[in-house]
Amino acid sequence: MASAATMATTESDSGHTALAPREYTRPHIQRLPLAQADVDTARTFTRQCLRGWQFADPGFASEVTLVVSELVNNAFQHAEVPEELRLIRRPGGVLVEVDDIGPGRPVPLPPSAERGHGRGLAIVDALACRWTVRVRGSGRKTVRAALGHPGTAAAV
């Protein structure tokens, strides 16, 4: 399996590939194809991106990494084909996007002490400012979660 560092590509909306962390005024995107990855690779990739973007708050990094873990795990568990993880650095925080191919939409399950699964979307809902699902046709969908960095007033 390739490492997260070798599998990732970097781009910005303007097409530039090397922005210093203090210059992030436009979205900056890191991509991880999921075809040859797993949840652990996605977590490592996320931690590397957050360090590179100089997010120093360990609590925020843990929250973003947990949301990534839950969304990528859902794609592997419930989709026919997990496609891609995108982390998008924006002023004020990070957007997490996971693309997959498969029927249905993610739906949070009601809390249950008996069930040993089904808590992932409740965790995402608790940690993210908002999360959405965009269905794109042919069974493709994107699950997106926005996380605001503590101490910023900008919208994610």
Main attributes?
156 residues; serine/threonine-protein kinase; 4 helices; disordered N terminus; alpha+beta; 6-stranded antiparallel beta sheet; Heat Shock Protein 90; transferase; Anti-sigma-factor_SerPK; ATP binding
CATH class reads: Alpha Beta
Q: If you compute it from the alpha carbons, what radius of gyration comes out, rounded to the nearest whole angstrom?
A: 15 Å
- Number of H/I helices: 4
- What CATH architecture would you give? 2-Layer Sandwich
Main sheet makeup: 6 strands, antiparallel
CATH topology: Heat Shock Protein 90
Q: How many domains is the backbone divided into?
A: 1
**How many strand elements?**
6
For this structure, the quaternary state is: single chain
Overview of the molecule:
There is one protein chain. This protein has 156 residues and is of the alpha+beta class. It has one domain (26-148): Histidine kinase-like ATPase, C-terminal domain (Heat Shock Protein 90). Helix content is 30%, strand content 29%. It contains four helices and six strands, in the order αββααββαββ. It has helices at 4-7, 39-52, 58-78, 120-127; strands spanning 9-12, 28-33, 81-90, 93-101, 130-137, 140-148. It has a six-stranded antiparallel sheet. α2 (39-52) packs antiparallel against α3 and α3 runs antiparallel to α4 (120-127). The longest helix has 21 residues, at 58-78. The protein is globular. The relative contact order is 0.17. Residues 1-24 have low confidence and may be disordered.
